[in-house]
From TrEMBL:
<dbReference type="GO" id="GO:0005886">
    <property type="term" value="C:plasma membrane"/>
</dbReference>
<feature type="transmembrane region" description="Helical">
    <location>
        <begin position="44"/>
        <end position="64"/>
    </location>
</feature>
<feature type="transmembrane region" description="Helical">
    <location>
        <begin position="76"/>
        <end position="98"/>
    </location>
</feature>
<feature type="transmembrane region" description="Helical">
    <location>
        <begin position="187"/>
        <end position="205"/>
    </location>
</feature>
<feature type="transmembrane region" description="Helical">
    <location>
        <begin position="119"/>
        <end position="141"/>
    </location>
</feature>
<dbReference type="InterPro" id="IPR036259">
    <property type="entry name" value="MFS_trans_sf"/>
</dbReference>
<dbReference type="GO" id="GO:0022857">
    <property type="term" value="F:transmembrane transporter activity"/>
</dbReference>
<keyword id="KW-0472">Membrane</keyword>
<feature type="transmembrane region" description="Helical">
    <location>
        <begin position="153"/>
        <end position="175"/>
    </location>
</feature>
<protein>
    <recommendedName>
        <fullName>Major facilitator superfamily (MFS) profile domain-containing protein</fullName>
    </recommendedName>
</protein>
<keyword id="KW-1133">Transmembrane helix</keyword>
<feature type="transmembrane region" description="Helical">
    <location>
        <begin position="6"/>
        <end position="24"/>
    </location>
</feature>
<feature type="transmembrane region" description="Helical">
    <location>
        <begin position="217"/>
        <end position="238"/>
    </location>
</feature>
<keyword id="KW-0812">Transmembrane</keyword>
Length: 366
């Protein structure tokens, strides 16, 4: 089975690589490059970024996939989390130091100054909050299809396609909407609102399978997520200095993953709590651990209890996702600005500022 999955991943990855190469922009559309010496690269900052990001995300993802709530008390959760937070503190202190000491003569891995921009900080906060419900649903929906609706593992995964497809459509729409006019604020608010509506509709599901409703409701979540992802990305390209483009985009990706990890952890914790509540006297520990597997042999009464527990857990999970998504709507209003320029005009200003900075830096060297 594992080799079969790997055999499928290889061709898919190759097709993605070919598309990436064929769609690479022509040289006239690429930004001008700035050559930097090796001594200007922030090696220590890069190591601290990796340590803080990987360790914190690993802690929550690992604890979130444990079958019991004891995962939150084990050293494999506590130790990486503490080390990751410590690395995060060192990273911030180091970035403040190099910003004050060397300023533009150094290429920071995690530039603190970009968070002084209210619009970009709003995009980061919104990305974090929208990552929570989206990855929570990616984790919880196939599980519900598999246990409550009795679908196979493959079909349960395939049934995510409506949400994934509408996420792509949402990204395309955001790009189209903002191609000429600057509607990034409206796109961010709309996307967050649609995500909230989708999660809210999912809370109305009963403990029955309701596959058709789930497939319909999840499209709102996908569409909203796509709108917010594209809008946040566009905001970062016009609000952040060109020299900080790469870390700015990396920060957005990482906070989205962090929010999703928290969502998965919350989903798993709730599922464990419901399993303990409804299944502790019905199933053995081994039977609970093998639910949904090929070795599961349960009576009709036991399956009924399992379906109820999983459906009840899903209902609570989407309620929490709705609250977090509603918070993302509130956060999106931080991107409002009067007298907005067109996207193209803002990009010209960013390019002009970068050219002025490079000329000033060259003059200092001379």
């Amino acid at each position: 089975m594992e080799m079969g999955v790997l055999d499928q991943v290889g061709p898919v990855g190759f097709v993605s690589l070919v598309i990436f190469i064929l769609t690479w922009p022509k040289s006239e559309y690429l930004p001008s490059k700035e050559r930097r010496a090796w001594k200007e690269l922030d090696f220590l900052g890069s190591l601290l970024v990796i340590a803080s990001a990987v360790l914190v995300v690993f802690s929550f993802q690992n604890a979130g996939t444990e079958r019991s709530n004891d995962g939150w008390k084990t050293s494999i959760f506590v130790a990486p989390l503490i080390c990751g937070l410590f690395a995060c503190g060192l990273l911030i202190a180091w970035q403040i130091f190099i910003q004050c000491r060397w300023h533009d003569r150094f290429a920071p891995a995690f530039p603190i100054n970009i968070f002084r921009n209210r619009i970009y900080s709003t995009a980061v906060a919104n990305t974090l909050l929208n990552g929570f419900p989206y990855l929570l649903l990616i984790y919880a929906i196939p599980l519900r299809f598999q246990v409550v609706s009795g679908k196979s593992t493959l079909i349960s995964g395939v049934m995510l396609l409506p949400m994934l497809g509408t996420a792509a459509i949402g990204s395309l729409l955001a790009g189209k909407i903002n191609a000429t006019k600057n509607y990034t604020f409206e796109s961010l608010v709309l996307g967050s609102s649609v995500m909230t509506i989708g999660c809210g509709l999912l809370t109305s599901l009963s403990h029955e399978p309701n596959d058709a409703k789930i497939l319909g409701y999840m499209t709102f979540c996908g569409l909203g997520f796509g709108l917010t992802v594209a809008s946040s990305t566009m905001l970062s390209t016009v609000e952040v200095p060109i020299r900080d483009y790469a870390p700015a985009q990396g920060i957005l990706s990482q906070v989205r993953l962090l929010g999703g990890s928290l969502g998965i952890a919350a989903s798993s914790a709730l599922l464990n709590e419901k399993s303990s509540k409804y299944l502790s006297g019905v199933l053995t520990a081994h039977e609970q651990a093998t639910i949904g597997g090929s070795n599961t042999h349960l009576t009709r009464a036991q399956w009924s209890a399992v379906r109820y527990a999983y459906a009840d857990a899903f209902q609570v999970e989407v309620k929490i996702a709705t609250v977090v998504a509603a918070c993302s709507v509130i956060s999106a209003f931080g991107a409002f600005r009067k007298g907005r320029l067109l996207i193209a005009e803002q990009r010209k200003i960013i390019v002009r500022e970068e050219e002025d900075r490079r000329r000033a830096q060259t003059a200092q060297v001379v």
